[in-house]
Amino acid sequence: MHRKLQPIAIPNAIPNEIPARHSSSRLAQSPVRLTSLLAGMLAGLLISLLSLAVPCYGQNSTEVQSTNVQSTELTCTVTESQPNPTTSNQPRWTIAIHGGAGGDLDRWTPAQRQIRLEGLAKALRTGTQLLEKSAKAIDVVEAVVRVLEDDPNFNAGRGAVLNEIGEHSLDASLMDGSDLSCGAVANVRKSRNPISLARAVRDKTPHVFLVGEEADAFGIQCQLPTEESQYFKTQEQIESWNEWKKRQANKPQATSRFDHDRGQDRLFYLGTVGCVAMDTQGNLAAATSTGGLLGKKYGRIGDTPIIGAGTYANNSTLAVSCTGVGELFIRNHIASAISSRMEFLKESLRDAARHAIEKTLPKDSGGVICVDAQGNIETIYNTPIMARGQANSEGLFRVGLADFAGPDDSSQR
Ligand code: ASP
Questions:
Q1: With CB atoms 3.0 to 4.6 Å apart as the test, which of 106, 138, 230, 288 could cross-link to 274 if both were Cys?
Q2: Which atom in ligand 1 lies closest to the alpha carbon of residue 366?
Q3: The pTM is what?
Q4: pLDDT digits (tens, 9 = 90+) for 170-216
Q5: Which run of H or E residues covers position 273?
Q6: Within a 10 A sphere around the Cβ of 242, how many other Cβ atoms?
Q7: Per CATH, is 94-400 categorized as 3.60.20.30?
Q8: CATH 3.60.20.30 region(s) of the chain?
């Protein structure tokens, strides 16, 4: 089903919980309470009817574009499959993906936007099909990120941005929230799917993190596919790098730390990919993969492969995948900070995620996708746009860039 909705002001507070009901004994004691209860029930019915008419906000899914600021008005074009008739004992699952945060959507042609939306929908569908078959969250997040790594339109695997010497170098990590097992790789240049190399580190070594040529060599030992550098370097990224190089030549301080996220360069860090999922057993997992930042220093590693900075999963709190200016996410250990706020301060997923993006990080630094063990989804970013998608067992299925807009693919599911 493809449905166009009128512009909707995204509220800054979407209640996740229904207020507790009055008990029947108190009801019997007070006719005034009876009247107010009936009024409350009517109001509840009205809210339910309204939520059916506005499916842009699925239950348990909230979405905030946060610029430390105002509530945002977005035009939503919702891509969704028909909600499944849900029974109480139906196994529940939830998934969210991202394709990077950044700025200035206007620099993409409609065709370039469409191709990215289709890429997101394809990856999300891979995840939903696995979750419907009760696949484990850790297998789902790896499979989804592989699809996005293979897609040349995202900054991960094939299509990665190029560093200061015009080469690609890839970072990835994943984590299983059921036992905190995790794997990470950085600065790899040969492994076709860095996320599967990270998975091999988790599965086949006693370690967490391998880097560089040695990590690629380990992938070869594990018989994971490799590629030559031409496979990873797409024409689009070569052109982006050439433009970046020209701009750098005109700058007196070409090594300034955040040249990449200023002005013309801002769009170019869009494209990192990530996936978080809750499977039918209630287990959580997260995975993130990137080519990093355009023009990054040779040897630089961002937050993506750093457990607790760019990726984290813990069944008792959440699964989170980050995207944005990695140095800021590392300094503020954003992924584990959200988990710690939930664990120690007993904050909700929503409050903890908002704190990280609105209060800890400066504007224009990036965003996160999160799910918790109750199946709530939280997407929040403080950049102008973030490519993303969400789906769950109740029939939510949507992808978007600046807004939730996408091809009508319900017939392909
Ligand atoms: N966080 C990634 C990095 O700094 C880049 C991104 O998410 O776009 O390497």
A1: 288
A2: 7
A3: 0.79
A4: 999 999 999 999 999 999 999 999 999 999 999 999 999 999 999 99
A5: strand 273-278
A6: 12
A7: yes
A8: 94-400
